Amino acid sequence: MKRRNYSVLALALLAITSTASHVRAQSFRINSVSIGNGTVQVSFPGQPDSYYFLQSTTNLAANSTPTAALLGAEGDLFFQAATGHTNAMFFRVEQIPLTSTSSLANDGLPDGWKLQHGLSPFDSTVAGQIPLGDTRTWLQIYQAAAAAAQLPLAYFPQASATVVAGSTNVTVQVAFSKPFTGNLTYHLSGTAIPYSSGIGDYVPPTGYVNVNNAMSTSVTITLTPPPAVEVNRTLLVALSTASSNPAYTITTNSVAAIQIVQSTQGVFVGTLSITNGLFLGAQSVKMALRPGAGNTTVAFFDATPNPLLGNTFSVPVLSSASGFQLNGQSYTNQLSSTPWGRNVSLSLAFGATQTNGTVFTTPVSMALAGLTASGRTYAGYGNLTLSRSQ
């Protein structure tokens, strides 16, 4: 048990003195004492990792008796006690660490634990009482908490992370306070959608990770390629335990939030307009900058609904903190069973992207091959105009 710390006040014929000792290499000393109207008030510095007893006696040769208790807190605390009509009284303020298992009532409940739960350390009947809203006695509640404190604590060292939609997977690290062996269980929630029938953000995992005598592990969740550029979503990963006979405990930092963002630099919206040629008009488009193969970046276009463009398509892109550059990139789509009864090849070619910092404009040429038996290619020209929306 850690050494207790005492500060003694002697009150005899209105003479006041104080002495100090040390605990955990920190000085514990009475700040001030005031006497009046038959009471004495003792002020002392508090600490949140301790609790305090005021003890009194009329004879230094006799043992002092605890008469009041306080739960520690940061800042100055004080005890106030009646002096009575004796010629001399001696008071002692005792500082005890909350880790102490001492029980004044000897009822199995540590005094510090009682104070933390709003109970009196002087009441020996508390241990057998059942608090409102529970079916267990205070002693059973404490014993369950003490048993849980011996188990490893599982938690997320990093409570949040960000991944880009379409990434292969997301990995969340989990740490333990001591080596753990067994299954770590978790469940998922949030605005992210489990993948089913071609729609969703992630593949539903097994819900547990097997751990073998380790201080850490990881939860890996496979993300699915999004079918379109959508709103950002959140995936919540929450640790859980068995309600009976748990193998580990969870308290704070038991939920990790994974932000699934649509782009590395926000989402761009606008139009792909062909102003001359066989096909005229404007197609609403969204664009997100996403990781491509290796260290490359691609521009992921959402032109839904437009089967001619393939609904969604990607082209390589040069990106920077200020925007993107599509200069020299192209996209080709092969279509079969078209309304014209022929296989058609569509090609888009992008010129140099110009921007004023807000609007990004790229010249585009469109070519359609295979519309006629002669093989003549029809061409159209226009612009891709985008602005950042997220």
Terminal CA distance reads 58 Å
Helix content: under 10%
Mean pLDDT: 85
The largest pleated sheet is described as: 9 strands, antiparallel
**CATH topology grouping of the largest domain:** Lipocalin
Specify the structural class.
mainly beta
- In what range is the share of β-strand residues? over 45%
Specify Rg, calculated over alpha carbons.
Answer: 36 Å
Tell me the name of the CATH class of the largest domain: Mainly Beta
CATH architecture of the largest domain: Beta Barrel
- What count of domains describes the coordinates? 4
Counting DSSP E segments of at least 2 residues, the number of strands comes to: 26
Task: Tally the helices.
Answer: 2
Molecular shape:
elongated
Order of helices and strands: EEEEEEEEEHHEEEEEEEEEEEEEEEEE
Properties at a glance:
single chain; 390 residues; mainly beta; Immunoglobulin-like; nine-stranded antiparallel beta sheet; six-stranded antiparallel beta sheet; 2 helices
